């Protein structure tokens, strides 16, 4: 199996369950509260490790109990933490998550130590980054520095997968570094300033990113599945029907499933189907990492589908 390197945010998620999303100024009673380990970098690393991949993580935590707890969890998941750096003067990143009874979620986060993942710190990991066969990163850490890491990987001929969340404008130079960019519907609309309600709309929006330099766009569309758009055309890979409880880390799980599929030598299409199964299963239990499935569970769902 090829080596997967994940670089990105490491957060503690504090999640409150609510009957519905409330209006500005309105107070409603929550139905539950839990603390989970999260952050897109941490989530994707754990999800990939649960699927049996060879995973190394690069990121920053604070000198606090949350940071120490998180590193211990990574190690127990079998993740190489040599690239997880402890920084002073900032807390471990924190996310505040509301989960409605419908399963939808809203998230606000504080960057904390994630903001310390600078090019200088990334350069201390440069030799290790050159070993990455597949490199996954997101946009919850300083963006120019994140793409600095992607450049190191590309020069060493690794495959670069960008999860553009939270979405913000990208330059053509940045897009050209991406072998795959994996926006959900909201992110694709924000990246292109185009509608994405229909498959036809999403295809046109993705084609704009292709024209601007991205090699392939993988539009995550929830229960509908995933739309792959390249210069050669577009294909919709249908999703799996499950009883969704909490969609918090579905996108992170999808990305991990896709990367693991590629690391196993599967085709792009086969990897997308695995990603759909992993993403779907991750919505069937509460929490981010707590709900991430094993490879066996994902393959079982695929056989049923």
Explain how this protein is built:
- This protein is an alpha/beta fold.
- The protein has 11 helices and 13 strands.
- The chain has helices spanning 40-50, 65-76, 119-123, 126-129, 143-155, 172-176, 185-192, 199-211, 250-263, 268-281, 295-304, and strands at residues 3-7, 11-18, 32-38, 54-62, 80-87, 93-100, 105-110, 134-137, 159-162, 180-181, 216-220, 225-230, 233-238.
- The protein has a 6-stranded parallel β-sheet with strand order 5-4-1-8-9-10, with helices on both faces.
- Strand 4, helix 2 (65-76) and strand 5 form a beta-alpha-beta unit.
- Helix 1 (40-50) crosses helix 9 (250-263), helix 9 (250-263) packs antiparallel against helix 10 (268-281) and helix 10 packs across helix 11.
- It is globular and about 50 Å long.
- The chain starts with a strand and ends with a helix.
- The relative contact order is 0.15.
- The model has no long low-confidence stretch (mean pLDDT 95).
Q: Helical stretch count?
A: 11
The beta-strand count equals 13
Strand content: 25-35%
The largest sheet has its strands arranged as: 5-4-1-8-9-10
Shape: globular
Query: What's the main sheet like?
Result: 6 strands, parallel
> Which structural class best describes the helix and strand composition?
alpha/beta
* Unreliable stretches covering 5 or more consecutive residues: none
Helix content: 25-40%
Order of helices and strands: EEEHEHEEEHHEHEHEHHEEEHHH
Q: What's the N-to-C terminus distance?
A: 25 Å
- Rg, rounded, reads 18 Å
Overall mean confidence score, pLDDT: 95
């Amino acid at each position: 199996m090829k080596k997967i390197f994940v670089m990105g945010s490491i957060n503690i998620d504090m999640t409150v369950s609510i009957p519905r999303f409330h209006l500005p100024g309105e107070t409603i009673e929550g139905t539950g509260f839990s603390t989970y380990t999260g952050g897109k970098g941490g989530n994707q690393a754990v999800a990939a490790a649960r699927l049996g991949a060879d995973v190394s993580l690069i990121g920053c935590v604070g000198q606090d109990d949350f940071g120490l707890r998180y590193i211990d969890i990574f190690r127990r998941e079998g993740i190489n933490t040599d690239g997880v750096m402890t920084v002073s003067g900032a807390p471990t990143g924190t996310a505040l998550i509301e989960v409605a009874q419908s399963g939808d979620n809203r998230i606000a986060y504080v960057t904390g130590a994630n903001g310390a993942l600078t090019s200088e710190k990334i350069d201390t990991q440069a030799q290790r980054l050159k070993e990455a066969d597949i490199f996954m990163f997101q946009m919850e850490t300083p963006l120019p520095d994140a793409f600095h890491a992607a450049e190191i990987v590309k020069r060493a001929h690794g495959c670069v997968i960008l999860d553009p969340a939270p979405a913000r404008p990208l330059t053509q130079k940045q897009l050209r570094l991406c072998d795959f960019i994996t926006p959900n519907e909201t992110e694709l609309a924000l990246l292109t300033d185009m509608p994405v309600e229909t498959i036809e709309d999403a295809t046109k929006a993705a084609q704009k990113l292709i024209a601007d330099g991205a090699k392939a766009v993988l539009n995550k569309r929830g229960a509908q599945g995933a739309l792959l758009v390249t210069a050669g055309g577009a294909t919709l890979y249908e999703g799996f029907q499950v009883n969704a409880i909490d969609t918090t880390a579905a996108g992170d799980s999808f990305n991990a499933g896709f990367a693991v599929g590629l690391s196993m030598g599967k085709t792009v299409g086969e990897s997308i189907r695995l990603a759909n199964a992993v993403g779907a299963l991750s919505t069937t239990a509460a929490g981010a990492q707590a709900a991430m499935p094993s490879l066996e569970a994902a393959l079982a769902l695929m056989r049923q589908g």
